[in-house]
Design goal:
The protein is an alpha+beta fold and 438 residues long. It has 15 helices and ten strands. Strand 4 and strand 5 form a beta hairpin.
């Protein structure tokens, strides 16, 4: 956030008035359909399965996840392989760890559908006799050739620390082709079923560590935490570390100024966004701070390690970054004048957050976990902007957020509205639903 620019623009925008656009909206009726996706290495339990717009699939048990009007591709993060097929995570099951699965269509997500994302790999598999039905429709449980493919590629990924089967290149496939064919032949001749063959693979060939009672996961773990934990660590630059630290402080500012202004002029919009969304945003960014073991109080190099106690000791309405303290004071001065002005402050904060997040997502680069969190924050801010816009219109301000000034006047093309991954409720509760937190 370019704080000095925002501080001056906050005052200027309120003095100069709006951009004069009074937009109308139309209601679009969308048919609702449900899609069940089976995720199988063996059946994958307790995974976070997410579509391209951030919708989280609802687990129906036994590796089946349900979506409403999903947008492909759909991807699976984390979870546990149900080795004994009893439908619960228990002793003897195996962590998926960092192995990722995806599908671009249909109702099945397997190693085969993930490999098929790579056109070169797909051509090789088809050339070697796999049918489209085996690659896109069947699971290891329903087809022995699919089981052989899945088992051999899984073994190769574990032995070579490969997390994404779609990234297998021609050299990998040249090695795998003979191995897959050999396993297909042995499976055809075997009297064992897919479950028994997988058990032998995990315990005899790979000697993987299986779950004990002490390893059973915490049921209270959120979907977002599951995804973050399933993404490998990146080597962060100093700029990326600084971006995480600043974003944590910036999300606290949004939460704190909304709560403070709500105490002066009560507003459901201010309160719901602060408590249901911004508070969760702070937690989301802190999950990155914890994962990368950053001491964000040390702005020189962020060394010294993560400390929950140190962050909890920071008082509300106080910030690590001096510029944010100054910005908070300006926002309070502006927003405390009236209920209308408090909502206008909301428009300003969300636009500024989105601008920062656009830049920060670029800075995050290939650090997938940072990009994911920041994109979630941005989707939330899109929704919050329209919530404040709507609240102003309900007060009789026909231009909504546009009344603040042209810099804060956005269209649905600029900030998508009511997408599957955003806060469709316009009060902050949809953000929690999107992340699987009820």
């Amino acid at each position: 956030m370019k704080t000095s620019i925002l501080i001056s623009s906050v005052v200027t925008a309120l003095l100069l008035g709006g951009c004069g656009s009074d937009s109308s909206s139309t209601t679009e009726v969308t048919s609702v359909s449900t899609t069940d996706v089976t995720v199988e290495r063996g059946p994958v339990l307790n995974a976070t399965v997410r579509d391209a717009e951030g919708q989280i699939g609802v687990s129906k048990g036994n590796g089946v996840y349900s979506f409403t009007n999903p947008t492909y591709p759909i991807e699976s993060f984390g979870g546990y392989i149900d080795m004994n097929r009893n439908g619960v995570v228990d002793s003897g099951d195996v962590e998926m760890n960092y192995l990722r699965l995806r599908t671009n269509a249909g109702n099945v997500m397997t190693i085969a559908t993930t490999m098929a994302e790579n056109n070169e790999t797909l051509d090789i598999l088809l050339e070697d006799g796999f049918s489209e039905d085996e690659l896109f429709v069947q699971t290891p449980s329903t087809d022995m050739d699919t089981a052989a493919l899945s088992d051999e590629v899984y073994k190769y990924c574990v032995e070579n620390n490969i997390t994404d089967p779609a990234n297998l290149d021609s050299a990998d496939m040249n090695t795998l082709r003979v191995r897959i064919q050999t396993r297909k032949e042995s499976y055809v001749d075997s009297e064992l079923d897919a479950e028994e063959l997988e058990y032998n693979l995990v315990n005899d060939e790979l000697n993987l560590v299986t779950m004990t009672e002490a390893d059973i996961p915490d049921e209270n773990m959120t979907s977002e935490q599951t995804i973050i934990d399933s993404i490998p660590l990146s080597v962060l630059t100093l700029e990326q570390k600084a971006t995480i630290a600043y974003m944590w402080d910036e999300e606290r500012l949004a939460r704190d100024i909304y709560l403070t202004l709500n105490s002066l002029t009560p507003s459901n919009t201010l309160y719901n966004i602060a408590t249901n969304a911004e508070s969760q945003h702070v937690i989301s960014v802190e999950s990155l701070i914890k994962k990368y073991d950053l001491n964000i109080l040390n702005s020189v190099d962020f060394s010294g390690g993560y400390s929950a106690e140190a962050l909890e000791a920071i008082n509300d309405n106080e910030f690590i970054t001096p510029e944010l303290t100054a910005l908070y004071d300006v926002l309070y001065t502006v927003g405390s004048v009236s209920a209308e002005d408090s909502l206008k402050v909301g428009c300003m904060v969300e636009v500024t957050d989105i601008t920062d997040l656009d830049r920060d997502i670029e800075v995050a680069g290939d650090a997938e976990d940072i990009v994911m969190i920041f994109e979630n924050l941005r989707r939330g801010s899109y929704s919050h902007y329209w919530a404040f816009d709507n609240a102003l219109k309900n007060l009789g301000v026909s231009d909504g957020c546009c009344s603040v000034g042209s810099e804060y006047c956005k269209t649905a093309e600029d900030y998508p509205q009511n997408t599957k991954g955003s806060d469709a409720s316009h009060d902050g509760t949809g953000e929690r639903k999107r992340l699987g937190q009820h």
